[in-house]
Design goal:
Helix content: 10-25%
Low-confidence stretches: none
CATH architecture of the domain at 20-55 and 150-192: Orthogonal Bundle
Distance between the termini: 25 Å
CATH topology of the domain at 20-55 and 150-192: Hypothetical protein yqbg
Number of strands: 8
Radius of gyration: 20 Å
Length: 198
């Protein structure tokens, strides 16, 4: 077995706040004034940070992002990726001499078994030999909805509900409570959750 657990991160770091517009959340809150825009934007950012990205509750990207997956190499001929990948950007690896090498992304494909997504070589292509270390392979891939207009309405509604909850109960919106997921919010998000994220 090559890896214990892959390391997945967003490259470069991006803010997901564009996934849900301030104006839409203010309409939900029935707030017409601008004095509290900063507070509402902070709650939107906190809500999106809670559900978006590799470590988010959904286990997926909302707005299109490039994620970097670092692992020891394929297991049984495939590399399982986090989220819902749409395109392979690059594949690099360390060979048995621990020299850095690259592979041609078009020689590989993304496929799903209905539960997850994996990268495998196309017909006539084979995986090379890798260094025996947990960071021998790095795959950068694109994942997420193309833009804010493509983010499903239930996800946007869930963000608005979460912001509304914190906005109304702002005295209780501590660092701990900002990590809590009210039932109505989780019910809206459940169908879009990938994997077994907490």
């Amino acid at each position: 077995m090559r890896t214990l657990r892959p390391v997945v991160k967003v490259v470069p770091e991006v803010s997901p706040a564009v996934a849900v517009a301030l104006a839409d959340v203010k309409s939900h809150l029935r707030v017409s004034w601008s004095d509290e825009d900063g507070k509402i934007e902070a709650y939107i950012a906190a809500a999106l940070a809670l559900i978006d990205g590799p470590s988010g509750w959904l286990g997926r990207a909302l707005i299109s992002q490039d994620w970097q997956h670092v692992c020891g190499g394929p297991d049984f001929g495939r590399v399982w990726l986090t989220g819902e990948p749409t395109e392979i950007v690059s594949i690099s690896y360390l060979d048995t001499d621990e020299a850095s090498q690259t592979l041609t992304p078009s020689d590989f494909r993304i496929h799903t078994d209905g539960f997850g997504w994996a990268v495998t070589p196309k017909t006539g292509v084979s995986w090379p030999s890798f260094a025996d270390r947990s960071d021998a392979m790095t795959i950068v891939y694109t994942t997420g909805f193309a833009d804010a207009a493509d983010v499903p309405a239930p996800i946007k509604q869930a963000v608005s509900l979460l912001v509304g909850h914190w906005f109304k109960e702002r005295e209780a919106a501590t660092a701990v409570s900002l990590k809590e997921m009210p039932f109505a919010v989780s019910a809206l998000l459940e169908n879009y959750k990938i994997g077994f994220t907490a």
